[in-house]
Amino acid sequence: MTVPVRRLPDDAAAALTALDLVVGTVAVTTQVARATVRTLRLAPLVSWGTRPFLDAGRTVRERVASEVDALLPFVVNAAVRRYVDLDGLVATVDLDAVAERLDVEAVIARVDLDAVAERIDVAAILDRLDLTDTVLTRVDMKVVIEHVLAQMDLPVLVEGVLDEIDLPEIIRDSTGTMASETVRGVRMQGVNADEAVARVVDRLLLRRGRTP
What we know:
Blueprint: H1 10-40, H2 43-49, H3 51-83, H4 86-91, H5 95-101, H6 104-110, H7 113-118, H8 122-127, H9 131-138, H10 141-151, H11 154-164, H12 167-210
């Protein structure tokens, strides 16, 4: 895990150096002043004469506090970089336990799924997919057809088809056509049979007529 590190600006580094110098000077000056006051017994005079300096010092202290507040993030950042092993710290974290405590539904509820969907290029995704190959190689058409047929009420479907057509009329037309053709065929066969019988009779009579 990489933590972004804020770089300490050059101005901030210079300000820190100046602050160190001022604090050190003030500390030394304070010690010297206290020793001098105790030695010379000048406390009343110092109390009266130092009022302007105290006011100025208070103003400086407030300004220094403001500057410290501005510089503190850079100081903390530098300290973390130098003294904290972030990789080792993260390695000790039980991410599974963290994930178990995470309210996924609350996170999803805060996500604008419509905005996310608007950013998805569905056409580009479909262009990259070979749907024909996917259907042919991964879809069991037999199972699909069986499932479709199982969902269909075939008797009702057949009844609906029969209701749409005049089946008795079709049967009558077919039967009438077949009967007419059959009668015509029988008649033709009868005519042919009559002619054949006549020829046979003629031959027999002809032969008898030539016999002495």
